[in-house]
From TrEMBL:
Transmembrane segments: none annotated. It comes from the Bacteria. The lineage of its organism: Bacteria, Bacillati, Actinomycetota, Actinomycetes, Streptosporangiales. Keywords: Hydrolase, Signal. One of its GO terms (molecular function) is hydrolase activity. Pfam families: GHL10. InterPro entries: Divisome_Glycosyl_Hydrolase, GH, GHL10. This is Glycosyl hydrolase. The keyword Signal applies. Residues 3-302 form the Glycosyl hydrolase-like domain.
Length: 454
């Protein structure tokens, strides 16, 4: 959106766009990141060749203009080359950053179906209360899921518009038609819940191995509004944008959540420690994975004094380790990989990401492990093995001589993840006993093959 991360500006050539993306992924790989979330539909547009919606203006500068290539296969392939999952990120209800339909391409859904949209504070939004809108969003997501080799489908925190100038969101006609005696706020939440459930079912029907998740605003409800809410005093996603993440957890209509905990520790209105604890408790025993959305974009700014301290963001990961429900972190935004504010990424890599990490296994997905690697050999300082179909990567573990197969249960022994598409060998850096495992796209892991080079 607005060329915040990639491409850095509209109108770059395909070669320049590819080079920028590769640079970002290389920086992420240096930090041992293992997933990338790429916004492919900022506002009812497409950063891919879509039969349903126009090309995004953030590629060429002109909405609807063909950039001369389909970025999506390249974006996915480059992520997979580096052992990263690719999550296609959609904004479900944002239709345009203008309220003038005439400025949109002729094939834009909002122009073809003007009754679907609400003009609100200078922008166009699809009306979540209309079944045909929810069907359309589901159709767009399903199209991408079927046609591209994505690992996940991702929604951000924008559902109903955030409070702006306190303008009423003009959905009264839809409410009259579909509200069926509900209170307006309950009906709006129900509309979002319906979309989440509908998209989840469509994604898993199209490809059972594709994950679906949402990054909600960091506060569900404050304790002053609901005894089960967090001890915070900020905006409530439940009341302000009608996003009820606890309902999605209860219905198991999401596979993971990435709450945007974009506040520092000790911040009175929304203390990071308080919120991590609350979200960990919210997902406990649900089967929904919890990753924490981290405000990399705030580091080095003066918005809150704590963000001026280089140790603030790394300390969040220390807090997370107290909660087994926290399975990872997602950092916003990607452009900060280039600037590395206060060298905070160096600190995180040195203190917390000292070695590669396997992706979490989410409950409810296939758990059948692939076959162990075949013909594992050692020659002239390299381990090698035969490639196998259906294997996404290979795990390389190193332990002291004499270690048993249980060495692979200790993540501290994992020294490399080798993507299957890049190589079928690995240079051994030191003496010891090595183990090679095969990993499928969900990171189900085979039994290890043990080898002690002599």
């Amino acid at each position: 959106m607005h060329n915040l991360d990639w491409p850095s500006r509209p109108g770059l050539s395909p070669t320049q766009q590819r080079a920028e993306y590769v640079k970002l992924l290389d920086l992420a790989a240096e930090r041992r990141f293992n997933a990338v979330f790429v916004q492919v539909r900022p506002a009812s547009d497409a950063v891919y060749r879509s039969p349903l919606e126009p090309w995004s203006k953030y590629l060429t500068g002109t909405a609807g203009k063909d950039p001369g290539w389909d970025p999506m296969p390249f974006l996915i392939e480059e992520a997979h080359k580096r052992g990263m999952e690719f999550h296609a990120w959609f904004n479900p209800f944002r239709a345009a950053d203008t309220a003038d339909l005439r400025k949109l391409p002729a094939n834009h859904p909002a122009r073809l179906h003007p009754s679907w949209v609400v003009k609100h504070e200078g922008q166009l939004y699809y009306n979540p209360g209309l079944p045909q809108v929810r069907d359309w969003v589901t159709k767009v997501v399903t199209d991408v899921t079927r046609r591209y080799d994505v690992d996940g489908i991702h929604f951000d925190d924008y559902f109903y518009p955030y409070p702006g100038q306190t303008t009423y969101f003009a959905d009264s006609a839809a409410f009259t038609k579909y509200g069926k005696g509900m209170k307006l706020a309950d009906w709006r939440r129900a509309n979002v819940n319906k979309l989440i459930a509908q998209v989840s079912e469509a994604v898993h029907t199209a490809k059972p191995y594709v994950k679906f998740g949402v990054s909600p605003f960091g506060i569900w409800r404050n304790k002053s509004e609901d005894p089960s809410g967090s001890n915070t005093k900020g905006m409530s996603a439940y009341s302000a944008i009608y996003a009820d993440a606890k309902a999605w957890i209860k219905a198991r209509s999401v596979d993971y959540l990435i709450p945007q905990l974009y506040w520092p520790r000790g911040y009175a209105a929304a203390d990071y420690d308080t919120l991590v604890s609350w979200w960990a408790n919210a997902v406990k025993g649900s089967g929904v994975d919890l990753y924490i959305g981290q405000a990399l974009y705030q580091v080095g700014t003066k918005s809150i004094p704590a963000w001026g301290k280089a140790g603030e963001l790394p300390s969040h990961l220390a807090v997370n380790r107290k909660y087994p429900e926290v399975r990872g972190d997602v950092f916003f935004n990607a452009a900060k990989l280039r600037s590395n504010p206060l060298t905070v990424l160096d600190r995180i890599a040195d203190q917390y990401y000292t070695q590669p990490a396997l992706l979490p296994l989410i409950k409810g997905f296939n758990t059948k492990a692939p076959q162990a690697p075949r013909d594992v050999q050692y020659s002239e300082g390299r381990l090698s093995w035969k490639p196998e179909p259906g294997v996404r990567a290979y795990g390389i573990y190193r332990a002291e001589d004499g270690a048993g197969d249980c060495a692979t249960t200790d993540g501290r022994n994992l020294i490399a993840i080798v993507p299957a598409g890049s190589a079928h060998s690995y240079a051994t850096p030191a003496k010891g006993t090595y183990f090679v495992t095969a990993l499928d796209r969900l990171n189900n892991e085979s039994l290890p093959v043990r080898l002690t080079p002599r």
